[in-house]
Batch of 2 targets.
Target 1
Amino acid sequence: MEASALRVARRLTVNGVVQGVGFRPFVHRLAARLGLAGWVRNVAGTVEIHLEGDAPQMDAFESALRAEAPPIARIDDVHSIVAVADGADGFSIAASADADSARPVPPDVATCPECERELFDPANRRHRHPFITCTACGPRFTIIDSLPYDRERTSMKAFAACARCTAEYAAPEDRRYHAETLACPSCGPRVWFEGADGGGRADGDKAVLLAATALRMGAVLGVRGLGGFHLAVDATNDSAVRRLRSRKHRDAKPLAVMVRTLTQARAVARINDREAAALQSSARPIVLLRPREGAPLAPAIAPGLDRVGLMLAYSPLHHLLLHATDRPLVMTSGNLNEEPIAIGVDEGRARLRSLVDAFLLHDRDIVSRCDDSVVRVAESHDILMRRARGYAPVPIFLPAASPAPLVAVGPHLKNTFSLVRTDRAFVSPHIGDLEGIEALEHWQGAYTRYRRLFRVEPTIAVRDLHPGYLSTRIAEELGLSRVIAVQHHHAHIAAVAAEHGVTDPVVGLAFDGTGFGDDGNVWGAEVLVCDLSGYQRLAQLRYVSLPGGDLAAREPWRVAVGYEALAGWQSDAFSLAYYGIPLAQRSSVQQQVERGINAPLGSSMGRLFDAAAAVLGVRRHSSFEGQAAMELEALAGDQPAAPLPFPTYEAEGRLHLDPVPLLIALGEGRKHGVDVALLAARFHESIVEASVDLARLVAGSYGLGTVALGGGAFQNARLLSRIACRLTEARLRVLVPRELSPNDGAISYGQAAVASWLLSRE
Ligand code: ZN
Ligand code: ZN
Ligand code: FE
């Protein structure tokens, strides 16, 4: 490069997920293309770039830096300052200056198009190698043991790179330059096939082909993947799918399906552009899609629902398996019921033997367990239903830096926990329900691993208000200097506000299944005015008895009994709710309600959906939480409908929404032969209308311009989109969950946001 009088220099500092993602080779190529001299290096979790050359080329560099960055990189900000030119010649990758500090751990990344091409290219030396990766793709979070991210601190350390791989690793122009996961057939991990009893072992390509044959014959396979085991079965074979369901004790909860290409996905589902983008994103989440009529999918995959969860192959092993099977495969978590998914080879054998006919295994260890993520593309935006693989553990910023490192232990169900250092929250992937010894051990194992990985040693714990939850016991038993309790729905709204950086008071609509209220009742449809420091409860759903407590969440007809009591046992609009329920059982539950025995009071939106489903005769027993609500949403579709009466009254200094007239109108409509789908749509519209009115009223009287929506009920895309749209029309700013799920997966982050705010102000 010729030195000129116009030669200037700039120093850029890039923050974000920029290490372990092929960023330096990318910078190297970009600088070379634009004829810039200088160097790039890693400095303590950031990337520093020194550029010398013409100013216009540098501007081009800066815009291309963002526009063309590797898909898995996340640039939070770029600082650019004028530097002194030292006449550098050419561009180089300089040695890292690694101070001990925050270094983001990159998430796992789906096999990139180039690796996929090589995988199926007979001339390539990695042809059909199930562990092909490069700097732009492959496992990261699930194999990293500690930082800095180098091969010897990942589970790839067990596989010494061969001479050819080592040469690629060392060549700056190679796309596997510094690819910590690089491997090839001669030095990489191995796959093998074995029967459920351990016999019939086959290795390598033969293993994949045997696995495919078994699947085509209807077998259930345990497949060791990236973040844990999947249970796989032919998705076009209904009896095979039902066999999987009965072995897994999973009656109705929808099962995810994997295909290899977008074209194959389009053959089974109707996919719009945004859904296609979500499917093909480097996180490769499960996307909930409308199945195509006549699609060859087994009916047992998602009974009663209008959506099927579809994902594209995201590891080379998936590509090989699906290529050989040549049909969609059910790929569901390798666990029994809601237990944590199995990850180790021996663990998988022991825990899954009774569920599978055979295993497809490999010998690259999984350090961190990580489920598949789930996304729903709603009208207004993408809803992250479960944040795990491909998203975790990218940190989420907090509006206030915490003066002390802390751990927010999260909720009781659908648990995640968050570690906080200054203004960053490292939200764990989905852990699951905190019930049972296995879940507790999983929690503790992940907590130990994360503290090491993120170098956070918490001194303060944050927990839910409920005194009896396992999460509360965990928080108390960590032995930290202080424990802060945060109310569940406050945490929901705080999470949404905080991810948007909003710290001023907002109106919060917190709609979900269950959260422990500060009056000891079960909350779940609350209108709050809150900021990060506290909340006021300004409106609620009218309390109803939930006979049987937790049992009421499984048996919608019980909730209907509670509402029938509020109606004074006068209405016969509830009769469909009891169809098939023995009279003796019904009257004992009625007595339970009247005498208040094991019948806690609840204001839960989830339970209102259950009651509506029972009254409409849609569902009286659920096999998983939210089933009735999902079915009502499916029935309602997007047909327009007018709201039914859903009045409010004032009591105890608060507004109360009274669903009794609404439920009666539903029951009577059904009796008069009104289409159940229309009634489901009218039910949704009633909630939309009532919540929008309440939010506007509260916003008006408190002079607030922002409404935040949080809680699991907002996984219902119709509810979320309609409420958000109506509030926007009313000129209110609407905050919706984007980085985290609306459901309890966001609670630990909300707890962290509240605690950091409080601590930063002490
Ligand atoms: Zn790749
Ligand atoms: Zn090799
Ligand atoms: Fe919740």
Target 2
Amino acid sequence: MAANAKGELGEATETDDARELTDGFHLLIDALKLNALDTIYGVPGIPITDFGRLAQASGMRVISFRHEQNAGNAAAIAGYLTGKPGLCLTVSAPGFLNGLTALANATTNCFPMILLSGSSEREIVDLQQGDYEEMDQLAIAKPLCKAAFRVLRAEDIGIGVARAIRAAVSGRPGGVYLDLPAKLFGQVMEAEAGAASLVKVIDPAPRQLPAPDAVERALEVLRSAERPLIILGKGAAYVQADDRVRELVERSGIPYLPMSMAKGLLPDDHPQSAGAARSLVLKESDVVVMVGARLNWLLSHGKGKSWGESGSKRFIQIDIEPTEMDSNVEIAAPLVGDIASCVEALLGGMGESWSPPPEEWTRRVSEKRETNLAKMAQRLGADTSPMDYHSALAALRTVVKERPDILLVNEGANTLDFARSIIDLYKPRKRLDVGTWGVMGIGMGAAVAAAIETGHPVLAIEGDSAFGFSGMEIETICRYDLPVCVVVFNNNGIYRGSETNPSGGGDVATTVFVKGSRYDLMMEAFGGRGAQATSRDELLEEVNRALDSGKPTLINAIIDENAGTESGRIGNLNPQSVVSRKS
Ligand code: OXT
Ligand code: ADP
Ligand code: MG
């Protein structure tokens, strides 16, 4: 297809003026491709249907979803895995709003993504005259993402895309909104001028070197430590400086604690891992080096009971975002810069003769770890019927150990928290989960993007509630024939399936689902394979079969409905009424 002088689309012929003219559709495609952005996750419709077609015709991969939120979550995970902004394409107003949750979530997690959304006509929207899907999308997106832009003229598409890319990946990565009014796509201009208007973004995420005095300050604090700890966050996994980060840990000899999505950055069975000694190292350490992790709720804001005596810690924090420093507690040695450069600078300053931490400290950490590992091994040994979380996850732990290249997607409450501590990861960026917001619904979008972007098989371990937020995308998984094995931990509900209505009658309890649901049959409805697993052995066999086949599979794993706890491991955040009164 090519554009005629009026911007209408027609079949390309030898004689038409495709070589002389271009339009908004083609310029946008060319601008993305020029910057090596070749995959779009989205949902088609007015005004971007033809854009999707033309993008596909141009050789781009355009993956259509059933709901924009899942497409957006896929784009965000694509951004996390590749370091390039993941692209999500939505229609105006409702489609845009559906994608917006994912854009905000990407921004919260510091994942680079661009939400490209068609929008209605400015002249009508701004006068609120009731256009089709009327909404001032730019204004709505602005507070929820890192940057938001609108392109009104075809000749500005190149610049608009360039700005979006730079905003998404430079400094602290995040979500960017690009508003594309319907009329823009049909605008026609000379092809030569159009090509000249495109921008190839040079060095989109430039290195940011830490100041030498800041490096020296950090080393001084570190040298004085008696009980040092390194905390690795998903920022450290994102930057793909895996060897340098590992060298920092190993050369320093300091125990390290991986945050959830940083698991596997160094293999979880690494002798310096303090993952299984979490409480001890948080409480007892005296100097903590934060590498691409924030002192937010997931780390109790760096203070309180779990951090030991107040004032007992000094923090060194490596982060590209200067305002992250002192966000919750005083940072004794802020190291502002990109992680690769900061780690490099620390290694340079440490030299080859760095003294490891006192043996008494590393021994205590090891002892605690071994005690917890032994306790865990005992619990994993118990093969219960019906399966509890440990019983089922023991099988999946073995699968991941034997197949370290697969990507693990994980959401739920108990399903999330138990899987996090039970399943070891051995390679970087293999664990994709609910992230900073603890949001349900990332599952199938993340699974699709993980399969598309890496080509490796995906194992998605999903609470039955969590799965429901994006479950319809198993049709997408079947449509693209992706090597995704979904295991639904079916405990008949949220946290536990055994609750009853406190009034003693009426509706079922608010946390309970249809008992004995057959999620496996949903997969069969779309041509994938469905299976049930009632025991650990069955689960192991079915998952291995699925991963060997590389075919879309859903395994309905029956979990004891009494086994979970309210809100998993974060029950402390769930306010409970202490007032008893008759309603
Ligand atoms: O050191 P100690 O002794 O303390 O021991 C620790 C470790 O050292 C040790 N450990 C180990 N031991 C041995 N071996 C190994 N390998 C090992 N590794 C660790 O184990 C303990 C614990 O370690 P851990 O896990 O590292 O530490 P801890 O203390 O848990 O860490 C604290 C946190 C905060 C970092 C951690 O807990 C964490 O990352 N938590 C994230 C929690 C989270 O995000 N949860 C999701 C949200 S819950 C809730 O909001 C839900 N909703 C509401 C909702 C949401 N979220 N979103 C939307 C859009 N709408 C609604 C809903 C609807 S969950 C939910 C659905 C739930 O139902 P499902 O059916 O899906 O799921 P089920 O519950 O299964 O039914
Ligand atoms: P976790 O949840 O694993 O603790 P967070 O998402 O809280 O991790 O923190 C990630 C941090 O990594 C953010 O503060 C972000 O600014 C930082 N970050 C991201 N990319 C870089 C980079 N290239 N260099 C330095 N810091 C980075
Ligand atoms: Mg459940």
